[in-house]
Description:
The chain has 18 helices and 13 strands. The protein has helices at 3-27, 29-44, 68-77, 132-142, 157-160, 184-190, 211-226, 242-249, 256-273, 285-289, 294-315, 319-322, 341-355, 385-398, 418-434, 449-471, 475-480, 483-492, and strands spanning 47-50, 56-58, 101-104, 111-113, 125-127, 149-154, 201-206, 236-238, 277-278, 280-283, 326-332, 368-372, 403-405.
Amino acid sequence: MSKLGQVVESIENYNKFVLDQVKRARTDEKFGRELLGRWNDIKAKIPITRTPTGVPLPRLALPEIDEPGEIARYLFGEGLPGEFPYLNAAYREMYLEPVREIESFEKNGGKLDKKIPQTEEPTRLFSGLMLAEDTNERFHYLTRHQRTHRLSTAFDGPTLYGIDSDADGVFGKIGEGGVAIDTVEDMIRLYDGFDLGSPNFSASMTISGPAPIIMAMYIAAAKRRFGPKVVPKLRGTIQADIFKEVQAQNETIFPIEPSLRFLTDMVEFTTREMPRWYPISISGYHIGEAGSTPVQQAAYTLSNGFAYAEMFAERGIPIDQFGPRLSFFLDCGLDAEYIALSRVSRRIWAIGMRDVFGGGPKAQLFKLHTQTSGRSLIAAEFKNNLTRTAAELVLAYMNATNSCHSNSADEPFTTPSEEWIRLAAHGQAILLEESGIFKHTMNMLSGSPGMKAVERAVEAAILDEFREIERLGGVLAAVEERYQRSQIQNAAHR
C-alpha cells in the first residue's frame, strides 16, 4: 500500500477512534466525568469581550453541550481552534481585534487587564505588470496603509517559461499578465524600498517551472542589498508546485522527474539555510481555475502534498524540518462545497501527517492561503463581481484561512486598475475591521447542521478520489496516465 493508501486508512481509523471515544464517554462514567470537567474548565477560561454596542461575547464560541458523548465528538472529531485535528482553525485566535481589558469568568471572578498582541493582517494582494519598476510602484501603492508588507508577485508568460525578454517571438508578451524578470538587477528593482529581512515583510512568488532559478535570483538580490547575513531572515513563499503544472497550468520547462529532483534540491537548501521560507506552495487554485470541481481541487492538492512529503522524506530531510515549511493555496468559489472545503482539507492533512508520516504538531498544520475565484468573475455587468468576491471572502474566512487575496472586479477583461484593486482590498478591510463577523469571536459561524453535512460529504468524496489515485499506482503514476488532467477537463466541460 502506498503512502496515499495509508492516508485513506488513517482517516478511516481516526473516524472510528472518534466514534469509540463517543461510546466510551457514554459508558465509562470516570472518562465521561473527566471530559465534562475538562469542557467546563475550557469554557470557564474563555475571555469575554464586548462589541462596540456593549454586548458581551466570548472570544471563542463553543457548542452548548453538556453530554459527555457530544463533548467527545467535538474535542476529538473537530478539536478546538489550534488543536488536533484542526478542523476549526490552525491557530487558537485568528482575525480577532486586540483588546486591552478582558472580562474573564475565572475563579476570582474579577476583571483582568491583558494586552493581546495586534494580529497580523491576513490580506494579501497579488500584483505583477509590465516591468519591475512598474510592479514596484504598484506594490508601494498596495501596502501604503498596511502594518505589514506581504507582497504576492505575478510573473509574465516568458518568465514563467524561463524565457528572457529578448528571446525571439516574445516581445508582445513582455509584462503581460505579470512582471518581466530576467536578471538579478530586475529582482532588485522589483522589491526596491522594502526591507527584505524585516519580520514585517514577506514576498510570495507565483512561479513553478523556473522556481529554483528565481529563488536564487531573489537570494542574490537580497544579499546585494543587505549582505549575506540577511539570508536566514528572508521570509516568504515560492510556489514551485510541479505536479500542479503538469495537471492543470502547463507552465513547466523540464520533464517531470528532473523537475521534481530540482525542486527537492531547493527544498533541502531552504530547509537548512532559510528557516522562515516556505519553499513550496501546494496549489489547488490553478486546478480549480482550470475547471475542476471543488472536491477534485482539494483531493489533487492534498494528494500532491502527501506525494511531496514522501519525496522529501526519501531524500532524508526530517519531516519535522520540512513539514512546517509546506504551505497550501486554494480557490474559493460560490459552490456549496466551499462552505467547508478548507476545513476538511485541514483535518485530512493533520491526520495523514501525524499518523502516516509521523509529523509533530507544527508539521501537521495545513497553512492556507485562499484566493477568491477568478473563474466566477464575469465580464458582462462586471460590477456584480464585487458581490461575488464579497461572498467568496465570507466563505474563505469562515474556513479560517491564514491569508487571503481578493480579486478585482475588472479582471475578466484587463489587468486590474488601481480603482478596482483598491475596492478589492477594501472588501477585506470592511469584512474584518468594520463588520463584527470575525473580529470578536473565533468559531463565529462554525458547526451549523448544514456545515456538518457538507463536511461529511466533502470528506467522503475526497477519500474516493484518493482511492482512485491509489488504484492507479499513486500520484506520479496517475499523472503519467493523465488521470488528474483528464478529470479536470471533463469537469470543465460539464
